[in-house]
Specification:
Structural class of chain B: alpha+beta
Number of domains of chain B: 3
CATH topology of the largest domain in chain B: MetI-like fold
CATH topology of the largest domain in chain A: MetI-like fold
Oligomer: heterodimer
Structural class of chain A: mainly alpha
Main location (chain B): membrane
CATH architecture of the largest domain in chain B: Orthogonal Bundle
Keywords (chain B): Cell membrane, Membrane, Transmembrane, Transmembrane helix, Transport
Largest sheet of chain A: none
Organism (chain B): Neomesorhizobium albiziae
Largest sheet of chain B: 5 strands, antiparallel
GO biological process, one term (chain B): transmembrane transport
Order of helices and strands of chain B: HHHEEEEEEEEEHHHHHHHHHHHH
Family (chain B): Belongs to the binding-protein-dependent transport system permease family.
Chain lengths: ~325, ~400
C-alpha cells in the first residue's frame, strides 16, 4: 500500500515534471536553432518567422497526440470494428447492423433510451427552471440552491445505492425500511418491488438521473434569468401583464438559447447513461439501455463487432448535436 | 426579475408563503435521500432492519424470541421449582413491554405480571428482562422454555459500520485506489491543455480554426466509441512488451485523453477573453510566447484552471466505466465506485455495509464540491456544452 502511494506521488512528479521539461526544453530548442536575439537584419526576421511557424505546434503537440490516440483514432476504428465479426478478423459487412435491427434486446434498449430521452431532459429543465425562479424570490434561495445542486457531486453508483435504499422492498408484514414502500403502506397500499415493475421501473431509474441533473439545469438557467434586462420586465409590468404572462412571454423567449443548451447537454448525458442501469437492474426486467447493452456485448458477449455497432448507433444519435455545436461556434466567430 | 417578484409574490402573503413552502418541498426531496444513507450508516446493524431510518431517533419496539434457563439451573423453593435469570444478554440495554410463550401470541402478557401457563406453571417477565419461571413439578429437558417478548430499544448510533467496512470489506484499499487514479488524472491534463489552449487562443497559425472545430466536435463524442479500440490497443501494447495491459498509467492517460477536449475548450474560451493589450505590450517589451504564457496568461487563468480541476476530479472520482474497462475489476484494483457496484451484487441486503460504503464514496466529492463551489459553478457556466 505504501508502494502504491509512493508510485502515485512519483508519477505526479514525473508526469508534471515531464510536461514542464518538454514545454520548456522544446521552447529553448527553438530559440537555439532559430535565434532571434543577437542576430541582425534579415536573418533575425527570418528566424522570427520560422519560430512563429513552429512554436504553436510545440504548444499543441502533446494535446494533439493524445487526442488522436484516445479519441480520433478510436472513432474511426470503432466504425471499422462494426463491420467485422466478434473476433475482429472476418469482414461481415452490415450484418451487425442487421442483427441490431432484429434483436429483441436491442429493440427494448432503443425504446427505453427514447423514453429516457423524452423524460429526463424535459424533467430536469422544467424542474430546474421552476426552482431557479422560486429560489430567486426568497432570502435563503442560495442555501436552497446549494442543497439541490449537491447531488451533482455524487457518483451515479453512489446515487444508485441511495435510491435503491429508497426503493427497498421487504415482504408483506415485515417492517418496510425503504421510505417509498413505507409511505405506500402508511396510506394503506401494498408494498411494491419498484425496480422490477415492468415498464414503470424505467421511470424509477430515470428519477435518479433527474435527481442528479436538476441542479445543473437550475444553476445555468438561474444565471440566464439574472441576465434578462430588467427594462423588458418593467415594461411588461407597466403594460399590465400578470406574473404568468411575464414568465411565458417575456422571460422564457429571452432564455430560449440557454434552455436549448441545457436540454442538449442532458440529452448527451442520457444517451450514455450506463452506471445507473448497471447497478440498479443490470438491464433486467426490460430496463436495458444502449450503453449498458454495449458493455454487455463487449465483456459478457465478447463480441467487439456488436459492441462497436451499438457504440456507432449512440454516436449517430449525438452527431446532430455535434454538428449544431460546431456551426454555432462558427456563427459566434469562435473558430 | 426583482420587479416581477415584487409584484407577483408581494401581492399576497399567501403567495409568498407558497414560494417558501414550494422551495422547502424541493429542498426536502433533494436532501432526504442522502440524509437517509448518512443516518443509516451510523445506526446499529440490528436496528437498521427493524425500523425505518426516519424512526432512528426514537425508541423502536421489536418482537424477539429467546430461551429461559434450562432445567439444570432450577432451585427448589417452598415446594416449588424455580428458574431465575434475565432474558437479555446485557441487561439494561432495552426494556420488555410484553411477553408470551407462543409465537402466535408473542405479546400475550404485559411485563411484570405473572402468567399462568397451566399445570401449575407460571412465568413472570419484568420490564428489565429478569424472569421467574416456577412450577409445582420438577423441570425436565435439556433446553429451557421458549419465550417471546417485545422490547423497546433506545436509539443507538455507532461508528462501528465505518470501522468494519474500512477494514474487512476492502473499502479502505479502494479509497486509496481511487485517490491513486484521480490525482494524476486531474493534474496531467491541466498542463497539457493549458499550453494547447493558449496556442489556440493567442497564436496565429494555419489550421487553427479547423482544430478548434475538431475539439468542439470531440466534446460530445460518447465514451463508448473509444472503449473497444483502446482496450484492444492496450492489450496489444501489453502483449508486445510483456507487461500487464491494465495499469494505473493506462487509466491516467485514458482519463487525460477523455478530459482534454473539455479542458482545452474551457481554458481557451477563458484565455481568449483576456485583454489583448496585455499580450501586445508584453510582446513589444520583447517577451516570447513562452514567457507571455508562463508569466501573464497562466497566473491570470487560475480561476478557470481551478474550475477544470474540480470538474476533472469529480468526473474521475465518480467514474465507473473507464475504471472497469481500463483498470479492471479484480480485488486489488477496484476503485470506490467499482467496489460499491461489487458490494451491491455480493452484499445486496446488508444495508449497513452498502450505506456506509456509499457514504465513504461520496464524502470526498461533497467536501471538494462545497468548499470550491464558486469555481465549480463558474466552470459550469463557461462550459455547459460539455458532453464527454
Amino acid at each position: 500500500m505504501a508502494a502504491q502511494i509512493f508510485s502515485a506521488i512519483l508519477v505526479i512528479i514525473v508526469g508534471v515534471g515531464g510536461c514542464v521539461l518538454y514545454f520548456w526544453g522544446a521552447n529553448k530548442l527553438v530559440d537555439l536553432i532559430f535565434p532571434s536575439r543577437g542576430v541582425t537584419g534579415a536573418a533575425a526576421v527570418d528566424n522570427l518567422r520560422r519560430q512563429g511557424l513552429i512554436r504553436p505546434w510545440l504548444f499543441i503537440g502533446p494535446a494533439l497526440v493524445i487526442l488522436v490516440i484516445y479519441l480520433i483514432y478510436p472513432v474511426i476504428s470503432t466504425l471499422w470494428y462494426s463491420v467485422y465479426d466478434k473476433t475482429g478478423e472476418n469482414f461481415v459487412g452490415l450484418r451487425n447492423y442487421g442483427w441490431a435491427l432484429s434483436d429483441e434486446q436491442f429493440h427494448n434498449s432503443i425504446v427505453n433510451n427514447l423514453m429516457w430521452l423524452l423524460v429526463v431532459p424535459a424533467a430536469c429543465t422544467f424542474l430546474g427552471l421552476i426552482i431557479a425562479v422560486l429560489t430567486d424570490k426568497i432570502w435563503w434561495g442560495t442555501i436552497a440552491k446549494s442543497l439541490i445542486f449537491l447531488p451533482l457531486a455524487i457518483s451515479f453508483v453512489g446515487a444508485s445505492v441511495i435510491w435503491k435504499f429508497i426503493y427497498e422492498y421487504r415482504g408483506e408484514g415485515q417492517v418496510q425500511i425503504g421510505i417509498l414502500n413505507s409511505i405506500v403502506t402508511w396510506f394503506g397500499g401494498d408494498p411494491q418491488v419498484w425496480i422490477s415493475m415492468p415498464f414503470w421501473n424505467n421511470f424509477f431509474l430515470m428519477i435518479i438521473l433527474i435527481w442528479i441533473q436538476t441542479g445543473f439545469a437550475m444553476v445555468i438557467l438561474s444565471s440566464a434569468l439574472r441576465g434578462i434586462p430588467e427594462e423588458t420586465i418593467e415594461a411588461a409590468v407597466i403594460d399590465g401583464a400578470n406574473p404568468f404572462q411575464i414568465f411565458w412571454k417575456i422571460m422564457i423567449p429571452q432564455i430560449w438559447g440557454t434552455i436549448a443548451v441545457v436540454w442538449t447537454t442532458i440529452t448527451i448525458l442520457v444517451l450514455k447513461v450506463f452506471d445507473i442501469v448497471l447497478t440498479m437492474t443490470n438491464g433486467q426486467w426490460n430496463s436495458q439501455v444502449l450503453a449498458n447493452l454495449m458493455f454487455d456485448w463487449m465483456f459478457r458477449g465478447l463480441d467487439n463487432g456488436r459492441g462497436a455497432t451499438i457504440a456507432i448507433i449512440i454516436m449517430l444519435a449525438v452527431l446532430p448535436i455535434m454538428i449544431w455545436n460546431i456551426r454555432q461556434a462558427n456563427k459566434e466567430g469562435k473558430l | 426579475m426583482a420587479q416581477a417578484s415584487g409584484n407577483s409574490a408581494g401581492k399576497s402573503s399567501f403567495g409568498r408563503w407558497g414560494v417558501h413552502l414550494a422551495v422547502l418541498f424541493f429542498v426536502a426531496i433533494w436532501t432526504i435521500p442522502t440524509l437517509g444513507i448518512l443516518v443509516t450508516s451510523l445506526r446499529d446493524k440490528d436496528q437498521i432492519i427493524t425500523s425505518g431510518w426516519w424512526n432512528s431517533f426514537f425508541s423502536s419496539s421489536q418482537t424477539q424470541a429467546g430461551r429461559l434457563g434450562a432445567a439444570a439451573g432450577q432451585q427448589e423453593r417452598d415446594g416449588k421449582f424455580v428458574i431465575e435469570g434475565n432474558i437479555f444478554e446485557t441487561p439494561g440495554a432495552s426494556t420488555v413491554s410484553a411477553f408470551g410463550t407462543r409465537s402466535a401470541a408473542p405479546t400475550q402478557y404485559p411485563a411484570g405480571t405473572a402468567a399462568d401457563l397451566g399445570d401449575g406453571e407460571t412465568l413472570q417477565v419484568n420490564a428489565d428482562g429478569s424472569y421467574i419461571h416456577s412450577s409445582t413439578k420438577k423441570f425436565e429437558g435439556e433446553r429451557g422454555q421458549r419465550v417471546y417478548y417485545s422490547s423497546t430499544v433506545p436509539p443507538k448510533f455507532t461508528t462501528e459500520n465505518y470501522y468494519n467496512v474500512l477494514t474487512s470489506e476492502n473499502v479502505g484499499r479502494s479509497f486509496l485506489n481511487s485517490l491513486t487514479v484521480t490525482i494524476p488524472a486531474t493534474i496531467i491534463p491541466i498542463m497539457i491543455a493549458a499550453f494547447a489552449a493558449y496556442a489556440l487562443a493567442w497564436m496565429r497559425f494555419p489550421g487553427r480554426a479547423i482544430l478548434i472545430a475538431v475539439i468542439i466536435g470531440l466534446l460530445v463524442v460518447p465514451l463508448q466509441m473509444a472503449l473497444i479500440p483502446l482496450l484492444e490497443m492496450y492489450n496489444g501494447v501489453g502483449n508486445l512488451f510483456g507487461v500487464p495491459s491494465k495499469t494505473y498509467l493506462g487509466i491516467w492517460l485514458a482519463h487525460t485523453g477523455f478530459g482534454l477536449p473539455f479542458a482545452i475548450y474551457l481554458l481557451r474560451s477563458y484565455m481568449a477573453g483576456l485583454p489583448r493589450e496585455l499580450m501586445e505590450s508584453a510582446r513589444i517589451d520583447g517577451a516570447s510566447d513562452f514567457e507571455i504564457f508562463m508569466k501573464i496568461v497562466l497566473p491570470l487563468s487560475f480561476p478557470v484552471l481551478a474550475s477544470f480541476a474540480i470538474f476533472q476530479f469529480l468526473w474521475v472520482w465518480n467514474d465507473l466505466l473507464v475504471a472497469m474497462v481500463f483498470l479492471g475489476t479484480d480485488q486489488e484494483h477496484l476503485v470506490l465506485t467499482g467496489r460499491l457496484n461489487a458490494l451491491l451484487g455480493s452484499r445486496g441486503g446488508d444495508w449497513e455495509i452498502l450505506t456506509t460504503s456509499a457514504f465513504i464514496t461520496i464524502i470526498l466529492p461533497l467536501i471538494v464540491f462545497f468548499s470550491l463551489q464558486r469555481y465549480f459553478v463558474r466552470g459550469l457556466l463557461a462550459g455547459s456544452v460539455k458532453g464527454g
